[in-house]
Design a protein that fits this description.
Blueprint (H helix, E strand, L loop, with lengths): L8 H16 L1 H6 L2 E5 L4 E5 L14 H23 L1 E14 L7 E5 L2 H14 L3 E10 L1 H4 L3 E18 L18
Antiparallel strand pairs: 1-2, 2-4, 3-6, 4-5, 5-6
């Protein structure tokens, strides 16, 4: 029985995300994201409001909010790509944000577009062509405003299959086949 089998699924995913982020996108590690829930349908990420994530008004800095939205949508896609066993490049093509209220507590970022992302992964593997999908992420502060959104994001996910070779799960990167590339 390995060490990873002794800890909960969200904690394992959090450790995997933080390790990957430290190696690939260190700024994400700085803000301390944690995985609350990760399934094929839904991803919920949390980022604490603290000295590192707070702006001069005492609420969460908008750049941190954007990083949380990126994590929630990106982790969902990386999970589905990993499960496909194929090598697929992932990048966000554009980003829209609507800031509704000041986030004055720990923020949860929720993406519930798993079915649409899974369909996109299947299409790019079958076609070999780059395809895009708008992914929605909602930010909430349950300790202050319950399920009321404090921000909404739409990120356009851009995927392209890389070669005809499957990527064995567990080899290479923690999230195999998800290396970023330039959008063509």
């Amino acid at each position: 029985m390995g060490f990873l089998n002794l800890i909960s699924h969200p904690m394992r995913e959090t450790l995997s995300l933080r390790t990957w982020a430290l190696l690939k996108i260190p700024m994400l590690s700085f803000v301390g994201p944690r995985v609350i829930e990760l399934s094929s349908q839904r991803c919920v990420m949390g980022i604490p409001l603290n000295r590192r994530t707070r702006n001069h008004l005492g609420s969460m800095y908008f750049g941190v909010l954007c990083a949380g939205a990126d994590c929630a949508g990106g982790l969902m896609a990386m999970k589905l790509i990993r499960e496909s066993g194929r090598s697929v490049s992932l990048i966000f093509k554009d980003f829209r944000a609507e800031f509704l209220k000041r986030p004055e507590g720990d923020v949860l970022f929720t993406c519930e577009d798993g079915a649409a992302i899974a369909g996109l992964v299947e299409r790019v593997i079958a076609s070999g062509e780059r395809e895009h999908l708008p992914v929605q992420v909602t930010a909430t502060v349950p300790s202050v405003s319950g399920d009321e959104a404090v921000a909404r994001f739409v990120l356009t996910l851009s995927l392209k299959a890389r070669g005809d070779h499957p990527t064995p799960a567990g080899k290479g990167d923690q999230f195999p086949g998800t290396k970023s590339s330039v959008v063509r």
